[in-house]
Amino acid sequence: MAQWRNGAQDRPAGRAARAATTDAQWRAFVRGYRAEMAEPGPSRDLDLLAALSRTTALSVGCYCEDATRCHRSVLRELLAARGAVIVD
To answer: Hey, CA dihedral for 10, 72, 37, 20, is it positive or negative?
Structure first.
């Protein structure tokens, strides 16, 4: 089994997600995370993951209790926008 890790929880946006307790803080996190993921390296990683999802099963794991207030909910949107196959 291969593992890909972009270190989201260790980056500034990941720390902001864990610290967000208000809607305004969450929206600020989402803006920051989307900006991070738009950088060339992470953007290529998203393209690769989306392409791989069309031929193999992938999963995204995280320790956050609430998926709606977790970077993985934003990651899901970013991957879907790139045509990733997403199964609940």
So the answer is: negative
Confidence check: pLDDT of 80 > 90: yes
Give pLDDT, residue 1: 39
Question: What is the C-alpha separation between 12 and 20, in angstroms, rounded?
Answer: 12
pTM: 0.81
Place 13 in a pLDDT band, splitting at 50, 70 and 90: low
* Contacts of the segment 40-44: beta carbons below 8 A, 24+ positions apart: 42/6
Exposure of 58 in the CB half-sphere (CA atoms within 13 A): 20
Residue 8 CB-density burial (10 A; 0-12 exposed, 13-18 middle, 19+ buried): buried
Q: For the chain, give me the number of helices (H) and strands (E)?
A: 4, 0
